[in-house]
Design a protein that fits this description.
The structure is a homodimer of 195-residue chains. The first copy, chain A, is mainly α. Chain A is 63% helix and 0% strand. The first copy, chain A, is built from nine helices and no strands. The first copy, chain A, starts with 6 loop residues before the first helix and ends in an 8-residue tail after the last helix. The first copy, chain A, binds a DNA duplex (33 and 33 nucleotides) through helix 1 and helix 2.
Chain lengths: 195, 195
DNA sequence: TGTACATCAGTGAACGCGCGTTCACTGATGTAC
DNA sequence: TGTACATCAGTGAACGCGCGTTCACTGATGTAC
């Protein structure tokens, strides 16, 4: 063969990674196949030997961007625990770099309009996220209470990050991030400087 | 003139109302000018005697869809107070009818990518929303505390509504709405059945 | 009162452009003999 | 060891289509005389 073994897989991975970043940065609809392939160092014709359609790539990119795969912000709740993770999620760098961040916050309103197959990928990733947050909540809560609280925390984080991104005034934007952190920590049972 | 007085204004209003609904339902990019004009009972050519560009219409539609204008869900916090408003915001009918609902939840992730002029319209509407929520919070909070809490409540509502719309399983979706309500009521200092 | 003209909201053909997708092709390599 | 052929990842021209936008036009009405 023309290319060394594993070359195609490598290319495939590169396209998915490029798409996962561009979709989160510019939205799914705004990013064209040709544009994406060029960014991956290829021509657009080859796209269909890797994917059956753009929608097929969207699904793969959603999987890639989901919280279970590598992700600069708010991926797994590592050591440092929930507080650190919450602060990391609503930090300014995450607000300013959606392309490396949480897919839910970057694409939520577009997500709701996607075909069911793509939404299923997202649903599963949200479920993992919820379970992960719940497992870090205080033992004083019942399992059902943990789950409910975990969903509320994630809703707050997603909402706050999006509002912080949409607003024009930087001070207002930071105020939203801080309000989100305070509220999420509160929900998590972590005492914060809430007045 | 061919048409009675006020006819053009009437048409203008109809286009904006149609756009405000369709943008929230299908996203801004997905909705074409010709499609929109047809839905308003007109042909696409006349569009540019009403607006300078599609972007101009987006701004007008954002204004129309903002919480200060008439809106079936979660518009003003009327009598019935904050609790009723929160429950109304996260009710199933709002989830299922983004075209009549909150623009922030319907468009948040697209909003962040819009030009500054459109985002300014949104920012102002968010500011009004924040003030309105804050004014209904218990007097035990300081003004700064009220503001922070108001932002957190709105973040939670926006995030929860979007996640509820994105998820595939109806039971999971309703669970998200309920978790959002419980958490928002909690933040608002209204005792709820949180376990 | 009757005629000629100006107005202007709305029409619909046409524009250049970029989209997702298809397909005949290229050309460096591995394999068969 | 040398030659002929099969493979197949990637190329780039071309497809139909819908987009936002432009513009010459229509035709019912109000106005001027």
């Amino acid at each position: 063969m023309r290319y060394e073994k594993g070359h195609k897989e490598e290319t495939h991975r590169k396209i998915v990674a490029t798409a996962a970043a561009r979709f989160r940065k510019d939205g799914i609809e705004s990013v064209g196949v040709a544009d994406l392939m060029a960014e991956a160092g290829l021509t657009h014709g080859g796209f269909y030997s890797h994917f059956r359609s753009k929608e097929d790539l969207v699904r793969a990119a959603m999987e890639e961007a989901s919280c279970h795969s590598v992700n600069n912000f708010a991926c797994r709740i590592e050591e440092g625990g929930l507080e650190r993770w919450i602060r990391s999620y609503l930090r300014i760098a995450h607000r300013d770099h959606p392309e490396k961040g949480c897919a839910a916050a970057a694409l939520a309103s577009e997500l709701a309009r996607l075909p069911k197959t793509s939404r299923t990928v997202f649903s599963e990733s949200l479920e993992r996220m919820t379970t992960s947050i719940a497992s870090h909540l205080p033992a004083t809560l019942t399992p059902a209470g943990k789950r409910k609280t975990a969903i509320a925390i994630f809703s707050t984080l997603v909402g706050a990050l999006q509002l912080a991104r949409a607003v024009v005034d930087p001070a207002h934007s930071e105020e939203i991030l801080e309000a989100g952190i305070a509220s999420a920590l509160d929900l998590a049972g972590i005492s914060s400087s809430r007045q």
